[in-house]
Amino acid sequence: MNKRVLPAYFGVILIWSTTPLAIQWSGAGDDFVFPLLARMAIGLLACVILLIVLGLKLPLHRAALHAYTAATAGVFGAMQLVYWGARFVPSGLIAVLFGLVPLFTGIISLLLGNEDRLNLARLTGIILGLAGLGVIFGAGTHIGTQSMPGFLAVLAAVMVQAGSLVWVKRVGADVPVLALTTGALTISVALLLPLWWLLFGHVPTMNMQASLSTLYLGVFGSVIGFTLYFYVTKHLQAGQVALITLVTPVSALLLGQWLNHEQVNIDIWLGTALILLGLGVHQWQQLAPVSRVK
User: Fold this and answer.
1) Which end of the chain is more exposed for a tag (fewer CB within 10 A), N or C?
2) Structural domain of residue 249, as residue ranges?
C-alpha cells in the first residue's frame, strides 16, 4: 500500500465509522427529513463545484439517466429509512447492520441470475450473517419498546441499498463516479424538498452540534467518502478493500459507546461477531489474496 493510498484507506474507515453517529447528532426532533435534505443539498453543491473545477460534464444520455435513477434508490430511499430509524437505534448498531450490505447484495445478485453459483463459503457466510442478525433483533427487544421499528427500518434500508448497488451494476452505464453521485443527489433533493414541505413545512431549530454534523455529512459523508472509497477501490486489491467492512462496524460501536454513551450489551456484540464472521467467510475468496500477500 503506497503512501498516497494509505491516508485514503484510513479516511474511508474514519468516515464510515463516524457517519452513523453524525446522523444521530444531526437529528432535529420529529423532523427526520430536513437534516437529510440539508445533507443532500450540501453534498450536491459540493459535487457541482467539483464538476466545474475539474471541467467535467454531467452525462444526460439514456443509460446515464437510468444509472442516476438506480443510484437514487440507495440515496433517497435507503437514507430516509436510516434517518427515521436512527431516532431509535444506537449509531454503532446502524453500522453493524450496514455491514450486511455485501451479504444482501450477493443474495439479490443470485436471485437475479447475476451470480453463477452459491458455493459453500458464500452459503455459510449468509447463514452466519442471518444468525447474527437474529441475535441482534433479540437484543433489540430489551433496548426499548420503539427499538424494533427502528431496527426494521434500518434493515429495510440495508436491503434497499443492496438492491440499488445491484441495479447500478446491472445498468452498466459508463458514468464517472462524481457524475453518478451528482445525478443521484440532484434527483434526491428534487424528491426530498416537496416531501419535507408536505410532512413538516417549516425549518426546525438545530443546535450547533446538529448543524455541524449535517455539514460534515454533506461534505465528508456524501462526497469525500465516496471519492476516497472509489480511489481506494481503484488502487488496491478487492480483499484489502473488503477489510474495511470488517473494521467499521466495531469502530462505530466503540465510538457510539465513547462519544454518545450508548449501551451495547453482550448480545449485540455476539450478533456483531457472527455478522463479521459471516461477512469474512462470504468474502473469503477476496480476502485470501490479502493473507497470501502478508
Assistant:
1) C
2) 5-283
- Total domains in the chain come to 1
Contacts of 58 (CB under 8 A, 6+ apart): 51, 179, 182, 183
In a domain, 204, yes or no: yes
140 in Cβ contact with 155 (< 8 Å): no
Query: What pTM did the predictor assign?
Result: 0.84
- The answer as to whether 294 is a domain residue is no
pLDDT tens-digit readout, 132-165: 888 877 655 555 566 788 888 999 999 998 898 8
CA 294 to chain centre: 29
C-beta neighbour count of 158 within 10 angstroms: 22
Q: Does 224 reside within a domain? A: yes
